Amino acid sequence: MNQNTFPCGCSPLGNLTKYDYDKTDNIFIGNVSKIIYDRSKNTQKIDFKIIKNYKGLYKTGQTITVQTFRNSSNVCGLDVQKGQQWQIWASGSPSRISSCTRSTRNINENIKELKQYSELLINEKSKKKESRTKTPLLLKQPEQPKTTPCPVCPTSNTIKINVNYFILLIISLFILF
Prior knowledge:
This protein is an alpha+beta fold. It has helices at residues 18-23, 111-133, 163-176, and strands at 26-38, 43-55, 63-69, 85-90, 147-149, 158-160. 24% of the residues lie in helices and 25% in strands.
């Protein structure tokens, strides 16, 4: 199917933006390794072996299965053949693609922007990870309670200030007066 024709009602995609990148779950270049057709639903499940990942949880060498409609004049499916390489823009669970996404056989389309946005994402994740490893001042361990010499304790030179002891002392003083 020609990327510039939209028989199923897709709007023209325009130039790639960071928003397009951010709203898509998985972006990768992959090789079609398997296609399973479901004639009753007019859909197909396509296994892609990832050659280069630009966004998502999958890594190079892994396989991801995406779903799409079978290509025909009235649906937004893709005409995918085993062995082809595609640039895939998939979202959802399970991952879905259509001719209305940026998925294309032209694996070099928008490649400069993809690399740029992918590097930005890696840098953002790195900064978040770095900020989580720094200990904020508020999370430092509290200081140990100060000790005071005990003038009446023959076996110990110090006693820790204890809230219960202090409260008992106040109650005793209150009862005496």
